[in-house]
Request: fold
Amino acid sequence: MRRQSPGDAYYSDVVALYHFDANVGGPCVDSGPLGLPGVFGNTTAYGNLQSSVVKWGSNALHVSDQSNFNIQGTSSPHWAVGSSDFTIEFWVYPTTFANQTELYIGATNELLAYDVTVYLTSAGKVGFLCKGTSGSTYASLVSSGALTLNAWNFVQCRRVGSTFAIGIGGSQDTASTVGTAALYAIGTTAVCICGSNTHPQPTYMDDFRMTVGVGRAFALPTAAFPSHG
Reply:
């Protein structure tokens, strides 16, 4: 049973909230106010829900080998952040740092174009890459600290005004003041959590939340993200 938690003051600004607690092998459920459906791309053999390694609730997402899991596979303008503040946050349990796992936000044709990328490097650090309207890199950060292997780590990436920042474990790790320009805007938007055929990095993820219009404070959750205001 999921632990009871107080309401979220910014719940109305949440564009995606996935607890990954659906039945193993089933679809993901968006517990945010938009209720966007979650679908698996490619095959659930590589990106699926499982119950053996879990942070909150009954299940978590397993991203393994050449996985390609599309949280939102259909057109949705809500992922395009433009010039707004935004926050991406999730729990991640890496089992190797040999390669790289990537989280694409605002992708078209899966990995061909994107607004925002959050990734784990082969050194166990968190990368945060954002493209401008020209499609070129606008902001690019890599955390100074590394995640802990075979343990749950809480990651936050946010924009507040002109500052982009990465938080690990509820505290700011690194930040860069870049500017207030809009990020790359595309018509058909989606999100992928994926590995690579040639560079697999098995990883577990639990409680994913994206908020647009708010740069949330860095803080370590003591319960699952609330599914209500």
